[in-house]
Amino acid sequence: MINPVLSSLLPVVLLVAIGFITGRAGWIRAEAIKDLSNLVFMVLTPALLFRTMSTVHVEQLNFKPVLMYFVAAMLLFGFVLIWQGGTRRAAVLALAATFSNTVMIGIPLVGLAYGQAGLVTLFTLISVHALMLLTFATVVLELAVAREKVAAGGGGGQHMLLTVLGAVRNGIIHPVPLPIIVGLLFAQTGQVMPAVVDRPLQLLGNAFGPVALVLVGVTLTAVRIGDHFKAALGLSLIKNLAFPALVALLCWGLGLSGLQLTVMIVTAALPIGANVFMFSQRYQVAEELVTASMAVSTGLGLVTLSLVMALASLL
């Protein structure tokens, strides 16, 4: 049987490699990267998020282990945000340190390693993963943007409360949080999505992972990883090792154990998710570093995930 870590990461590596080769061959020009990024961020991502959340019934989920996962994520996010200066760049790097590739890598890895019981725990986390982290990151980023405008003299007379309210509004009326919220609201009605609507959404959502990863590969053609390797390695070590260690410490300290604890730790150890790249593109900050970090984090994951899974089995 193929090692579950290897079988989960190889498709990701291959899709990134295909994008890299495509970019090198000139089949996708550098000028088209922004348009493709908009396609992913404005069309494919909302379709995936809305359809995923449209079937989630909150009352059926066990959120106890998930709660500690997000406590750890928020603590680490806050630490990186403050450490890096509270800017847009800091917010994107904080998201990179805490946002896991739960779908492309997490689902096949957990399914192969822990079976259906493990997937139930993972799906509980996935149901609110994007809602919690991406919505929080969006609000933080919009606040940073508003603060930068004030500092640049673009809104110096505006009351701080109005700035905060404007940032929160922009954080909700946004291609990421809005479809999550609308999807959740739809799910609570008990209605079933008509097939004529559900099928196109499914096709668009299925395209997100491959297109986003190919786009990462295309972007790598314009990035010299060597120039960012040290910073990318540091960020990858925080994501792949420090984050799961913090999750393990908090969960173990509260008496959580067994499969649910293991799945939370392994999920925290997953490489950086493609949504972080989309955010760096959207807010035009740290794009090269995030791209390099995703590549390093995924490659490093072949070793770190195996290590984390071995250590988690001892808890």
TrEMBL record:
Gene Ontology biological process: transmembrane transport
Subcellular location, record wording: Cell membrane
Family matches, as Pfam families: Mem_trans
Entry keywords, A to Z: Cell membrane, Membrane, Transmembrane, Transmembrane helix, Transport
Transmembrane segments: 6-27, 36-54, 66-83, 90-114, 120-146, 167-187, 207-225, 237-255, 261-280, 292-314
Membrane topology category: Multi-pass membrane protein
An example Gene Ontology CC term for this record: plasma membrane
Gene3D superfamilies per the UniProt record, alphabetical: 1.20.1530.20
Similarity section: Belongs to the auxin efflux carrier (TC 2.A.69) family.
Record-given protein name: Auxin Efflux Carrier
